[in-house]
Amino acid sequence: EPEVTQTPSHQVTQMGQEVILRCVPISNHLYFYWYRQILGQKVEFLVSFYNNEISEKSEIFDDQFSVERPDGSNFTLKIRSTKLEDSAMYFCASSYRVMNTEAFFGQGTRLTVV
Amino acid sequence: AQSVSQHNHHVILSEAASLELGCNYSYGGTVNLFWYVQYPGQHLQLLLKYFSGDPLVKGIKGFEAEFIKSKFSFNLRKPSVQWSDTAEYFCAVNAGASGGSYIPTFGRGTSLIVHP
Q: Low-confidence residues of chain A, pLDDT below 70?
């Protein structure tokens, strides 16, 4: 069964450093998402991506964040200068269309900023 | 845009007990509704989904959910839980019409622990 894969599974970084979280969505999917979950809190939407551009983003997704689909298969989330409060589980998801279908999620990357 | 509330944040049950997890959403138009499960150390997996038709939806592993439009609810049920059902459960909704968002919106999640 096709699946969304994320790497790394766990990343520890120092405050102020840049991190790149990587995702490989399901190959025929067209819509891509990043979510995050701070420990003990709800799953929060960050950004959606379609047709090589951001289609929607939340208030969380400020100038420190960026997304890219550099080569037609990978989908990356970059945090330019990490803060302690960026520590969370980051989930990538993809779907074939926006309605009447489910999003498929990756296993997540646990980001710890120290 | 829509929002989702899950009323039970932590549920502890013994094996064979019945389960019902509450989920309410706020949006008056057409919605897609989902329950996802996350087993320890694993990714979010779809338990069941509702798009249209029969409001009683059956999913994997004996789970079912009922869409009650008048109550804006989509509660998850299982008649007899097993130890292996220990996991985090998330309700999610997306909407397609004006005022809603097609972005899946999640509830806070419910942590279920089943004692053997």
A: none
